[in-house]
Structure formats: structure tokens, C-alpha cells
Design goal:
This protein is of the alpha+beta class. The protein has ten helices and seven strands.
Length: about 250
């Protein structure tokens, strides 16, 4: 998609706070470069309001270094880095993919870490597509993997952030292009995933793009409601609390 963009589109702002389309490509270059064992650039300026943690600081260093580059140079590096990473992944054995090591979600097998990478790359692709008005990629294996991982945090959101009474149940129904139903019920003080109950406390109906934007902090619950991107059946106040607290990604 990068080759389709004109010069002005590379500098369009995206829903990801502080980042343009160019910055999105730079971030992806940075993460994959690190995984290739390449050295990180000097630290970025401190006190940027959208940088919240050490991972954000590391990401910003790659982004900052490329802000003055021409778009052709950024795109060429992106193509080189992603080709090198794909070759490296294809060369890995099953045993290597099973080795447990560090990741943004803790110590996990390398294959699980790569599942997280699929989610992250898909999210940033969607950031770019919304910014330049080129929708796509909302169906298929990458979208399915991303939404499977993003919806897996619903129990944390309901149980820890919303913390409703015992017996409360929340169902999220994604209508497509990726269809998915996720249900959690508060049992023993924890929100436990399971089959949807016959009469949930609230059912939140939305689409995968909207859910991803909420889970990644791109949109607020109020914005999604105002845009008509979701609806509630049952306890609407509870539903609003859930969507207002969906942002869980770093």
C-alpha cells in the first residue's frame, strides 16, 4: 500500500496519538529491525505527551529518526526490513518457534510472540488505511488473529476495570467482516469467559474495526456511540462502562 501513497499522504495524521502515516511505517520498521538484531537509534526527545512507558520511548526513537526522511527512503527501508523478517521466520523450525522468551505479554513461546506481532502490524495497517481513506484488510487470517487477541482482554476489562456485581454477564457480538462472539460472566469475583448466557446483562453489538479502535485507544466509547458504530441490548449503562474501558493496548 505504501507505494500507492502520494507525498502529502505520508504526513497525514492517524488515530494513533502523535503519529502520522510516515511514523506508522517507521514504527513497524523499528520493531522488525530490533527482531533482526539491528541497533536502535539514539533516544527520542523526552516529555512527549503521548509516550507513556519505556516501550513507547523505544518506539519513538525509530519514529523520530525518520521524520526528516523522504517517503521513498522510508518505504524502501520498510520493504527491505519486512522481506528480511519474512525470510527469517520462514527459516525457523518448529522447535525454534516453541522456544519461550520475552515478549510484550511476558515470557511466551516465540510463535505466540509472532501472533502478537500479527495483531500489532494489522492495527497499524488499519491506522494508515483510515488516515488515507483506503479501507481494506478487515477480513482474512490477519484480521481474525488480531481480533481474537484483542477480544481476549474482555475478561480483564469487565472483571478488573468495570468490576460489576457477581453474576453480571457481558456479551460482545462482532458482526463482521470477522464475526465473533465473546462472553464473560462474573463468577467468584472474576470475569470468566464461556458460552453466552440465555439472558446476558448486556450485549454489545459492533464490528471488528470499531472494537479494534476502542481496544487500542484510537476511539473513545463516546466517539463510537456518536458515529453509530455500536449498540446495546440490555443494561446500556453497563455497556457504556465496558466500551469506555476497552482500551488495553500499550
Amino acid at each position: 500500500m505504501g507505494g500507492e501513497l502520494d507525498a502529502g499522504e505520508w504526513d497525514l495524521p492517524t488515530d494513533c496519538p502523535g503519529w502520522t502515516v510516515r511514523d506508522q511505517f517507521s514504527h513497524l520498521i523499528g520493531t522488525e529491525s530490533i527482531l533482526l538484531g539491528r541497533s536502535s537509534p539514539p533516544p527520542a526527545p523526552t516529555a512527549l505527551p503521548y509516550v507513556k512507558n519505556p516501550i513507547g520511548e523505544l518506539n519513538e526513537a525509530w519514529v523520530e529518526e525518520r521524520r526528516g526522511w523522504p517517503s521513498t527512503q522510508v518505504l524502501a527501508e520498510f520493504e527491505e526490513v519486512t522481506a528480511a523478517r519474512l525470510a527469517a521466520l520462514r527459516a525457523m523450525s518448529d522447535e525454534q518457534l516453541a522456544v519461550v522468551g520475552p515478549s510484550p505479554i511476558g515470557q511466551v513461546p516465540y510463535a505466540t510472540f509472532m501472533d502478537v506481532r500479527v495483531m500489532d502490524c494489522w492495527v497499524h495497517e488499519q491506522d494508515i488505511r483510515r488516515a488515507v481513506g483506503r479501507p481494506g484488510g478487515l477480513a482474512g487470517p490477519a484480521a481474525e488473529a488480531a481480533l481474537r487477541r484483542l477480544t481476549s482482554s474482555l475478561g480483564f476489562v469487565v472483571g478488573k476495570r468495570v468490576s460489576p456485581p457477581e453474576g453480571t454477564s457481558v456479551v460482545v457480538e462482532l458482526s463482521g467482516p470477522v464475526t465473533r462472539t465473546v462472553a464473560v460472566t462474573v463468577t467468584g469475583g472474576r470475569a470468566v469467559a464461556g458460552d453466552p448466557p440465555a439472558s446476558p446483562s448486556v450485549t454489545i453489538a459492533t464490528d471488528g474495526e470499531t472494537y479494534a479502535c476502542l481496544a487500542n485507544g484510537r476511539w473513545t466509547g463516546a466517539q463510537a456511540v456518536e458515529r453509530g458504530r455500536l449498540s446495546f441490548v440490555g443494561d446500556a449503562a453497563l455497556g457504556r462502562l465496558v466500551v469506555d474501558n476497552l482500551a488495553t493496548m500499550i
